[in-house]
Structure prediction request, 83 residues.
Amino acid sequence: TDIISVLQVRLVMKAHSFVRENVPRVLSSVKDKSSTVPIPRISQYLYFLFAPTLIYRDNYPRNRVIRWGYVATKFAQVSSAAF
Prediction:
């Protein structure tokens, strides 16, 4: 039950971040009577749910190439901490 509680807290925190980041944009476009309302796509929300971050952004900076040395270093750190 502890694992389920932790996962639920994570999902609630992510939902809160999503709402806090998007409501001001929607309200300002409604106040300005804009013809388009900047609502995020469902794919952006799904990516946010599975990305290792708690702050919602419409897009996240990424490198063009995978730095395999960096990946190996982080994998070794996680492996050594686990054992």
